[in-house]
Amino acid sequence: MLAEVARVFLTLGVIGFGGPAAHIALMEDEVVRRRQWLTREAFLDYVGATNLMPGPNSTELAIEIGRDRAGWRGLLVAGISFIGPAAVIVTLIAWAYVRFGQLPGALALLSGVKPVVIAIVLQALWRLGRAAVKNAWLGALALASAALSVAGVHELLVLLGAAIVAVLVTWRSARRVVASVIGPANAFVGRAANTGIGSAALGTAAVTAAVSLWSLFAIFLKIGSVLFGSGYVLLAFLRADLVQRLGWLTEQQLLDAVAVGQVTPGPVFTTATFIGYVLAGTPGAIVATVGIFLPAFMFVALSGFVIPRIQRSPVARAALDGVNAASLALMGVVTWELGRVTLVDVRSVVLALVAAALLATRRVNAAWLILGGAAVGIALGA
């Protein structure tokens, strides 16, 4: 069983281009549709729970699935297997960057992979949406969540708002329950602000002349513990600590690091691996990677005690239904934004349509579609 978990998540770590939305779609295809490890409803519950945790959501989802499938050993194996390929790839790119002074040229394969990823995510949204949107008002809640996201409201506020609305609709006399949800949330936001979200706090420390492995670990452990949101939020954290406060990186080096995290497969948080290598070689890459991903394992381990209780409580179940609907809405907004910058010519549109048709009619494994898209991108690029 552990070998199967390792094989699945190693594969996903290698082909997982496209960021968290694509990772969720690939995992749904593997563990729900093809292998039937989870029901669609259970998978959605894990998606909703990980969206309420700080840290890399798709990595936490992989860890949740591993724990569900093979216990505590599965938790570790799934997470390490999903992170490992990306960490190795990013370390090799960082080695080339340090040696040659710039990033290797953009791979042509990405032009073929990205349209395929859009098709995979859209199909997953369709399948998951049928399970998550159980009635008309949950559909309305999803649309409202999407509108708030487009308007710029923070993802965490959208998710918490959806949970509260769902509880109010389901249990009209639930004022005490809603207060118990808002209280801990406010306390958490306050603690997070004190640990580093506020830019003023980040700017007060003195600049450090030399890179310390312990300081590097502590910085990325903090970021992994309190960061909600997209890669742009990660960029803000890294810039505040490593460019402005410590002066360890230049602005260009930071942008290059974020670009590497975006264009390589696997978790975007492997940006930390790149930075660690640039600053302190292989030991730095290891320390930074462990630091930023360690909180994800801890949060998922704790959630193993919480999620079953949520599923048994009618009020908590209603809140999770609201979070699930909002999570899919946020995923839909991200997919729309990705589509706008990916489907820009006839070639990309045709690739996306062919991939969508193969998924709908032949139920082709998503991994083969991504490899096919990569081959097309390389051939056309040549």
Put simply, the count of helices is: 16
Low-confidence stretches: 173-209
How much of the sequence lies in strands comes to under 5%
Q: Assign an overall shape.
A: globular
| SSE series | HHHHHHHHHHHHHHHH
- Radius of gyration from the CA trace? 21 Å
Multimerization state: single chain
Description:
- This protein has 16 helices and no strands.
- It is an all-alpha fold.
- It has one domain.
- Helix 3 (40-51) crosses helix 4 and helix 5 (109-132) packs antiparallel against helix 16 (366-381).
- The longest helix has 44 residues, at 57-100.
- The N and C termini lie far apart (42 Å).
Q: How is this structure best summarized?
A:
The chain is 82% helix and 0% strand. The chain is mostly helical and 382 residues long. Helix 2 packs across helix 4 (57-100) and helix 10 packs parallel to helix 13 (271-312).
Task: Give the SSE layout.
Elements: H1 2-15, H2 20-34, H3 40-51, H4 57-100, H5 109-132, H6 136-150, H7 155-170, H8 175-197, H9 199-202, H10 213-226, H11 231-245, H12 251-263, H13 271-312, H14 314-342, H15 346-361, H16 366-381
Helix pairs in contact: 1-4, 2-4, 2-5, 3-4, 3-14, 4-13, 5-14, 5-15, 5-16, 6-7, 6-14, 7-8, 7-14, 10-13, 11-12, 12-13, 13-14
